[in-house]
């Protein structure tokens, strides 16, 4: 065996990974290669690896004191932007439950990565609701928006700023999340009440007596209560939309019952229902009320028509709301700019323009535009995951060298995303391991120093011995990458021996910074322990299965 091939897959996002700096821009700075700034890669990847690999027992409880890295944070936001409303709501429910467990000092079964994903997904959800609400309120406040309506202007949402999970501690983020969730919920309720009054004024329902109007007002109040209840994370997780408008009018209704049913139907209109469809429902109810006394059968037909119009209007209102909130979460992800000095990712200006149009003008995306936006988001997510894999592979090799000794270097040759060289103890001067990451595939090969050519029997025997040792080392490498959230399974390739090459050409020495990384990590761990002691005692479960 001389090499192993694997296709790294991101199993989970380790929370503490930050963006690496870009490679040098001047080609002459490093002939034939672009250098990986491996001291930063090791600082970001190995820094949190020591906790993940060496202190897994403390992982879940320590998560509350962890700070989210920039690369981890934007990658979690990208994943959240591409999942369904129901999954985001489920994450929000989990994040709230985990915060309550933390406050009550109860055991948590979730790992640090799982806790961070739930909180980050919940942050994306509430930020999108906030952004979409502000956009709706802004459109409603424009002169002439929506035709007739109440004389008062729409309430101006008084909301805290959006959540920025990157750089925050998990415990602080979850507290901010609860506060913003509550503020958005109250602001949505106030805006829905205003929109309902605007819709009612636009419909100008004049049919019916005082009893009819009282029944209509009560039905509208119930609709507002249901609207608020259905906007909670728990309700969205269950995702059981109300279907009352599906009922058909019962036979044998008298005039009073027709008027009562008409008021109930019209009051069930979604506050954000389109005025055109709502007017059709109001007209059908008006016909039913007028025909109730002399032609109850015809009145029932009009009621059934009104139910259909209300059902369609409510369905379209929900879809519009979901589309606007999805546009907001995609906009937040695609508008993200990497930190100053970090490796940049391509902007998606065409998709951002379309998403701004959805939010600023209320114009929905066409199918082709929706495909373009989804494609840009997926491209950016893939680019970020490639960067994450590169960082974690560099960190894993640095950790391997730290555990077992030997010299490690990293480089960015032309045509490769990453090249890592490691000389295990006892392999010098003639052999080393080389890992190359190219287009999503990771190949690890046993190398010997020199040019291609005939090897002596003694050299071939040593090549075979090194190849045999490589099997065990690949297993170690695989274990470490697993703690970093990468799923690796090497396919071992049988060849005649090691491969020729030049060790460490134009590469950066990883060993020079490992001592600093270990010292920095020890300092971070000591700071977390001090914070934990100030926050009160923690209780570990008796079974010790990575839970707190």
Automatic annotation (TrEMBL):
Top-level taxonomic group: Bacteria
Annotated Pro residues bias: 152-164
Coiled-coil portions: 170-204
Keywords: Coiled coil
Biased composition (Basic and acidic residues): 228-249
Protein species of origin: Streptomyces similanensis
Region (Disordered): 137-167, 228-256, 522-548
Protein name: Uncharacterized protein
